[in-house]
Amino acid sequence: MREQYRSEDFTEKDLAADPMEQFAHWFRQVAGGGALHEPNAMVVSTADSRGRPSSRTVLLKHYDARGFVFFTNYGSRKGRELTANPYVSLLFPWHPLARQVIVTGTAVRVGREETVAYFRTRPHGSQLGAWASDQSAVIGSRQELVDRYEELAARYPEGEKVPAPPQWGGFRVVPDAIEFWQGHENRLHDRLRYVRESPEAGWHVERLCP
Ligand SMILES: Cc1cc2nc3c(=O)[nH]c(=O)nc-3n(C[C@H](O)[C@H](O)[C@H](O)COP(=O)(O)O)c2cc1C
């Protein structure tokens, strides 16, 4: 299991001035290379108000200068934890390229219009699934879930407009640090981290020991 990573050095002069530009650069390379099935899959870690952590995979649906957006159920475990404690970490595990990106920041709910606009782009079945699932709640059987789905499918046949569920929506993670990790031979990996004191402040870059 001990793999030697072969790759070109990744140095300060290779970095974009802004970390979101750097993220876009790496994301395009990863997505374009075809080596990863879902390059937009990321691990989202949250902590409850007592500091107990939990992690799960979600799909990044949008990113821009403001941050990273994913959609979920606000009543889910992650949704409730982020409501009580907005500090969050995202991790992109791009193992086939010996790369990883780690973001820490603060999660804020996106506007309702942004949620509704994205919800409309989802396939009909996924729209119904969002209504059918009381995400993270305990359920007695799979059949109960299927029954809920079938009821909704009868109420909203294919082609009928499905409204966005009120408890469902997006979070935007506004970053305060973004680390770009590139694996190398002999464990001499590059770790370059952009950090800023606040969303209004400028970014500076620091190199971390691997
Ligand atoms: C590849 C992959 C993509 C996923 N994408 C999402 C997503 O975009 N939104 C979401 O709410 N859950 C997504 N899930 C399910 C979550 O991992 C998780 O099971 C769910 O959100 C409930 O998490 P929670 O109980 O910790 O809140 C995805 C799972 C996998 C494996």
TrEMBL record:
Do you know which Pfam families this protein is assigned to?
PNP_phzG_C, PNPOx_N
Q: State where substrate binds.
A: R2, E3, Q4, Y5, K61, Y118, R122, S126, R187, L188, H189
Query: Superkingdom of this entry's organism?
Result: Bacteria
* Domain (Pyridoxamine 5'-phosphate oxidase N-terminal): residue spans on this chain: 36-153
Keyword annotations of the record: Flavoprotein, FMN, Oxidoreductase, Pyridoxine biosynthesis
Essential cofactor(s): FMN
GO MF terms, alphabetically ordered: FMN binding; pyridoxamine phosphate oxidase activity
Q: Which GO terms describe its biological process?
A: pyridoxine biosynthetic process
* Occurrences of domain Pyridoxine 5'-phosphate oxidase dimerisation C-terminal (ranges): 168-210
Cited InterPro entries: Pyridox_Oxase, Pyridox_Oxase_CS, Pyridox_Oxase_N, Pyridoxamine_oxidase_dimer_C, Split_barrel_FMN-bd
Relate the assembly described in the record. Homodimer.
The role this protein plays is:
Catalyzes the oxidation of either pyridoxine 5'-phosphate (PNP) or pyridoxamine 5'-phosphate (PMP) into pyridoxal 5'-phosphate (PLP).
> What is this protein's name?
Pyridoxine/pyridoxamine 5'-phosphate oxidase
Source species: Streptomyces pratensis (strain ATCC 33331 / IAF-45CD)
List the taxonomic lineage.
Bacteria, Bacillati, Actinomycetota, Actinomycetes, Kitasatosporales
